Amino acid sequence: LPDVVQLRPVRTVHCTEKFYFIGDDEASNLDEMPLMMSEEAFESAESDYHTLPRARVGQRQRGLCWLLFCGWKVLCGCCCDCLLRTCRKRKELKARTVWLGCPEKSEEKHPRNIIKNQKYNVFTFVPGVLYQQFKFFLNLYFLVVACSQFVPSLKIGFLYTYWAPLGFVLTVTMMREAVDEVRRYKRDKEMNSQLYTKLTMRGKVQVKSSEIQVGDLIIVEKNQRIPADMIFLRTTEKTGACFIRTDQLDGETDWKLKVAVACTQRLPAIVDLFSISAYVHAQKPLLDIHSFEGNFTREDSDPHVHESLSIENTLWASTVVASGTVIGVVIYTGKETRSVLNTSNAKNKVGLLDLELNRLTKALFVAQVVLSVVMVALQGFLGPWFRNLFRFVVLFSYIIPISLRVNLDMGKSAYGWMIMKDENIPGTVVRTSTIPEELGRLVYLLTDKTGTLTQNEMVFRRLHLGTVSYGTDTMDEIQSHIASASQSNSGGGGGGSTTSSTATPSQGKSQHSAGPKVRKSVSSRINEAVKAIALCHNVTPVYESRAGINGETDAAEADQDFSDDNRTYQASSPDEVALVRWTERMGLTLVSRDLTSLQLKTPSGQILTYFILQIFPFTSESKRMGIIVREEATGSITLYMKGADVAMASIVQYNDWLEEECGNMAREGLRTLVVAKKSLSEEQYQDFESRYNQAKLSIHDRTLKVAAVVESLEREMELLCLTGVEDKLQADVRPTLELLRNAGIKIWMLTGDKLETATCIAKSSHLVSRNQDIHVFKPVSSRGEAHLELNAFRRKHECALVISGDSLEVCLRYYEHEFVELACQCPAVVCCRCSPTQKAQIVRLLQQHTSNRTCAIGDGGNDVSMIQAADCGIGIEGKEGKQASLAADFSITQFKHIGRLLMVHGRNSYKRSAALGQFVMHRGMIISTMQAVFSSMFYFASVPLYQGFLMVGYATVYTMFPVFSLVLDQDVKPEMALLYPELYKDLTKGRSLSFKTFLIWVLISVYQGGILMYGALLLFESEFVHVVAISFTALILTELLMVALTVRTWHWLMVVAEFFSLACYLASLAFLNEYFGIGRVSLGAFLDLGFITTKAFLWKVSAITMVSCLPLYIIKYLKRKFSPPSYSKLSS
Fold first, then answer.
1. Which residues make up the binding site for ATP (predicted)?
2. Catalytic residue among 216, 229, 354, 448
3. Please, where are the H alpha helices in 1020-1087?
4. pTM of the entire predicted model
């Protein structure tokens, strides 16, 4: 950077000329440098800073237009935010001092340790649900119209015709919300009532999770959930360390090793925790689950004992103890814990279809008001015209039918029932029944890796020694080599470690004397490679404790404990466990390990003991881990290392096969590790140890100095082997991802795992296709680095992006819009080392910048925030528990089920709801058109054409069943929808429900309403008293025929619904004839039964119906013949 950014002179008044360097933290022109988003503007990477033009930052002109169109929204928003901030001032989070076992010494009041997922309480339930319902224009409109009927001068019909549908909708909604709220309350109560053992001066007491306070000493047993964030003080494990499962926090099923505070672990007994005066100083509560800074201080010793605390000394809430019993002091509770800070509040999700219908109803309302004004204007604004205007508004209120909400809500429930009853996706549960249509509109799918795409089951697949490669079918050769080597070692004398001490030195001498020129035999190379894999790891074998074993075990019990059936392995990575399990199958078994030594058992039963001198753990920077061991039998010291090929290639001796074989394994989707060793003399090791210890004690640049000392040892290492481990994918992941890609869905993988692992899974799952390049975003920490790296990425075309969470955070801080714009152009994006909060943040970014619908799928507690933030959340019930599936809108049992869920059910739900919504609006508009024609014929009188009962019957018994049967309609068969996923791509454009299709339905409604009313008035002029019966009969027939016109695939229930509705109408004509007069115009006029059986009535009604429907049938036929839709081509 200093070579690129030039120094500039700064002139100041009354001062000599000075020079300064432009840094990231100083006020430089970098703040005003935009990213160049055009291809032509790019120069070489070195001159990026010079070629970028200075940003022209100017204030927008804000005048009256701005205030009228968008300024009022901004002003209202600011006022609401200020009001909320005033009413709900959030307490500032601060660092704290926590005394062991003394909650009363706490200086501040801390939140209660409760889990709360409820949306409402007893007082806010009714107002909250009503607000959620009436914030939509549709429902608010129905409420105002219904309330207007209490005013006598505005009353048009019966009250029940307005209040019954509205009351039905509200009752169903409130009952559904109440059931969900009770379920959430029970789940919270169960979690908050879990009992834990608290250590007090008087001994152990049982307390509820909700009663735990900051400063309490809590005992957590094996397989018990940790109730609050704690510092790890003691454990029953002799090593002073334990393993915890963090799957509900970071989504990874690897067990994490935690270390107890040395000062408290050394105390003779638990009760001694109260005999010392000690406190923990902890930093303020943060979101980051991977870091912690604090100090432990003991005051009653001379001098005071100070220990620094890091992430390895913490026990975060919602994790589970996997080994031993632990004791910790609580430092954060309730909403200040890491797990709660990383969990976002559940939002009320509203489907895009509902929002689109809400916009259409606003347009209909404007049309309704305009029509009413026209009617009053044609009256000449006579008399109380304002009252007449409102009466006309109520009279035309059927333009926006309340049955729209009823039909759509019932349709959503039907779709949910169909999804849960689908035998092809067993175990699927619909938890949010309000958004099934969202499954048919998705553009972005954000998926977790571990447990979602993969099973998190590692299997050893390949061992490569340079000249020979072993796969799953030739592993028995390795076993025979190990067995023969073990036999030859034990053949010279007695058993046990004595034999190895006599056999191994001779072998070692012969190797040294032979020198590097003599090629080792394949058998010895295999033996060394397997031994290196069995030694270079952080795996600990664990044996279940048996009844009656107390204190020290004797030899017989120890032998019994070493039985293979009783052994399990614990490690911080499943890769490590897979490697150790493989060496066990080959014959070299890890039988015990502590902080200073480990033991291996050979096929002949020998126990080989190795002392652990140093361990260099894996870090994301070094990409490798190492161990220095001394063999007890021979005293020889060896450094073993394993790591990623990019890290190991430069430190092993020259070879011509490593790079090529790594590429071959990566293409097979295997995770590769390079294993190497280096023999050290006693003098070499002593020199290294002194320099290493000195580097660890340095105050400044400790990490760099330690790394430099270790690197001095990592030179010219002997390359032993290359291993390939497969992370087993979930069933049918590859075809499912291909199906989704062909459907136009862009897939982003968000994982908390390492970059190398995430990249490998992206390749093996075919998330990134074979012919696609991968751009690995370099680690960036400053604005300048992010700027250069984004410009470098901009030059790439059609390549997948892999980026880490830290780099992502830097990019979003300075170049949010530019980064999202570039990332959205990628065919696939992989974000690794993502925290739960970052996952949710990425979802929100896509929603804001693209306005497209997003779907998140995961299986762990760390995916809950992402699932809740997405427009549609899908949870998988897996090894990581049910937390994700319970928080999701839809729950499935396997990832492959998402294909059918989206392609079949999502597509059908959207197309059916679009057709249903538009048809219900058509049903309202056609009757409002007839009302307008009727009023205009009768001197613009605000008199209803049909009585209240007929209006209720029209929306329910006469037409509801055929219209609702549209939820059974489908354009193509499910098999066809899965075979041609490209059909799904059309739905994202929203063409099934748009202003264009809406205007077509408006024109159809106006045409048919006009024909029906004018036809009735023209053809039945002599029988004018029967105009209601005539027009209403033609209207019902037209609606039934229009349903038949709209249906694409007939179902037997549709036919039943058509004939049932027709039968109901004919029955009401016969038995409810008093409702078919023309209202107040001819009060007391009843329908003559003889009249409706005449030929004149029948042919005239048939003629009107034919004129209203036949042209539409002809147009539909011509359109299907000359411009057929894509689905009809497939059907034929």
1. 448-450, 576, 618, 642, 671, 751-753, 833, 839, 862-863
2. 448
3. 1027-1046, 1052-1071
4. 0.72
